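[job 0417] fold request received: Shikimate kinase
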Amino acid sequence: MTQSQSSHSPSATSARASSGSLAARLDRPIVLVGLMGVGKTTVGRRLAEALKRSFVDVDHEIERAADRTVSEIFATHGEAYFREGERRVVARLMGEKAGVIATGGGAFIDADTRALILDKGVAVWLDCDLETLVERTSRRNTRPLLRGGDPAKILAELKEQRSDSYAQAHIHIVTDDGPHHRTVSRIIEAIDAWL
Ligand SMILES: Nc1ncnc2c1ncn2[C@@H]1O[C@H](COP(=O)(O)OP(=O)(O)O)[C@@H](O)[C@H]1O
Ligand SMILES: O=C(O)C1=C[C@@H](OP(=O)(O)O)[C@@H](O)[C@H](O)C1
Ligand SMILES: [Mg+2]
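[job 0417] inference complete; emitting structure tokens
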């Protein structure tokens, strides 16, 4: 879709209209949670643009602080070390000015991190079907948890293990393959209704 088509579509217009009122009313960070490949990083950045808020991706913050990629941190120090960094970064972000935060898929599974996000932020669970997750995560080889075996099987297991935690989020959005601005609009409308 071209830029001009997108900016004249009804959903893009309604995203802009409701983003103004939401930006004024919401004094909590919006925290996107959900499995790898669901679109937290991509949609989070666009949501922040629509709301004229800051955007932070937790994985990128950890990478910046460590001066290493997530894969390198897993390989050099192990997953427990990464999770510790993830816990610290989320705790710091939840104490800062309200913006949009994209977590890594495991952050909301930690009970303390989850409690903090639920207390200080508005947690939005982005969800989609397994086949879509498998296809999207296959595009880039940046996720160490998917390298140890069949990605489809690993993602199915993670979905099974983690869905009860994700379901505690304030808002649940089932995404599709439509344009990003549609997902952004649906998140804004859902938060508006939640407020
Ligand atoms: N609604 C969508 N439709 C099509 N592709 C998408 C959608 N959301 C995300 N993607 C693509 O899926 C891949 C993974 O998205 P990403 O934002 O990195 O997910 P996450 O941060 O949840 O792991 C990226 O290539 C991204 O462009
Ligand atoms: O689900 C997980 O445990 C992980 C998700 C990744 O982030 P995305 O969900 O943004 O891919 C990243 O934090 C790390 O590879 C572990
Ligand atoms: Mg991400």
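[job 0417] notes: The chain has ten helices and five strands. Confidence is low (pLDDT under 50) at residues 1-10.
[job 0417] exit 0
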